[in-house]
C-alpha cells in the first residue's frame, strides 16, 4: 500500500501542476490588458498633480421645434423621468447629443440634464418657454479618460461589471501563482522571502509613513 501511495504522489503532483498552469495562463490572458491599463493609470493617478490636464470646452445652441417643445412641456407636467424619445432623437441629429440617459431636472422655466462621462463632463439646458437649447461638453483628455475608467467614475453598469470580471480573473491569477510558487518553493529558496517582502514592505510603509 505504501508503494502504491508513493507512486500516486508524483501523478497527483503532475495533475495539480497541469491544472494550476492551465488556470494561471487562462486568467493571465483574460486580465493581461486590463492589468497593464490599471498599472499605467495607477501611475498617472498617483502623479495627477504633476500631469496637467488641458480641458477643451465646446458649446452648441439650437432651437427646438414647436411640436417637440410641446412634448417637452407635457413631460414636465407629467414629471417624466426621461426626455421624450422624439426630443432625444432630434438632439442627436441636430446637436450631436447621444441619449442623455440621466434623469432630467425639471423646473417651471427649463429642463436641465447633467451628463457626466469618463474624462469629461457635459450638460444640456432647454428653455421650456421658447425652446432654446444649450449644450456644453468638456473634454479633459485621454489620460483623464483612462483615470476615470480605472476608478469606474461615470462609466455605467456594464463597465462596472467588466471591472468585477477582470478583478476575479486577477484574483484567480494571483492565487494560482501562489500555489505554483508553493509547489516549486523547495527548489527555489528565495521564493518565500520574496513573497514575505511583498507583504512586509507595504505594511511597514503604512505603519511608518501613513498617518
From TrEMBL:
InterPro entries attached to this UniProt entry: PepSY_TM-like_2
A Pfam short name: PepSY_TM_like_2
Keyword Transmembrane helix recorded: yes
The entry's keywords: Membrane, Transmembrane, Transmembrane helix
Transmembrane regions listed in the UniProt entry: 23-45, 158-180, 192-210
Entry superkingdom: Bacteria
Protein name as annotated: PepSY-associated TM helix domain-containing protein
Source organism of this protein record: Undibacterium luofuense
Lineage: Bacteria, Pseudomonadati, Pseudomonadota, Betaproteobacteria, Burkholderiales
Amino acid at each position: 500500500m505504501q508503494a502504491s501511495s508513493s507512486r500516486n504522489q508524483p501523478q497527483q503532483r503532475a495533475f495539480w501542476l497541469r491544472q494550476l498552469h492551465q488556470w494561471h495562463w487562462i486568467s493571465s490572458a483574460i486580465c493581461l490588458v486590463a492589468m497593464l491599463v490599471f498599472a499605467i493609470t495607477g501611475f498617472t493617478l498617483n502623479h495627477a498633480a504633476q500631469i496637467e490636464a488641458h480641458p477643451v470646452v465646446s458649446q452648441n445652441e439650437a432651437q427646438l421645434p414647436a411640436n417637440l417643445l410641446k412634448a417637452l412641456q407635457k413631460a414636465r407636467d407629467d414629471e417624466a423621468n426621461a426626455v421624450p424619445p422624439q426630443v432625444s432623437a432630434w438632439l442627436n441629429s441636430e446637436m450631436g447629443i447621444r441619449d442623455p440617459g440621466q434623469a432630467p431636472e425639471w423646473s417651471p422655466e427649463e429642463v436641465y440634464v447633467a451628463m457626466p462621462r469618463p474624462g469629461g463632463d457635459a450638460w444640456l439646458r432647454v428653455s421650456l418657454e421658447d425652446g432654446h437649447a444649450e449644450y456644453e461638453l468638456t473634454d479633459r483628455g485621454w489620460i483623464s479618460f483612462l483615470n476615470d475608467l480605472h476608478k469606474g467614475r461615470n462609466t455605467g453598469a456594464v463597465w462596472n461589471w467588466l471591472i468585477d470580471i477582470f478583478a476575479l480573473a486577477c484574483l484567480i491569477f494571483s492565487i494560482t501563482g501562489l500555489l505554483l510558487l508553493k509547489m516549486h518553493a523547495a527548489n527555489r529558496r528565495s521564493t518565500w522571502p520574496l513573497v514575505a517582502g511583498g507583504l512586509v514592505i507595504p505594511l511597514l510603509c503604512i505603519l511608518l509613513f501613513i498617518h
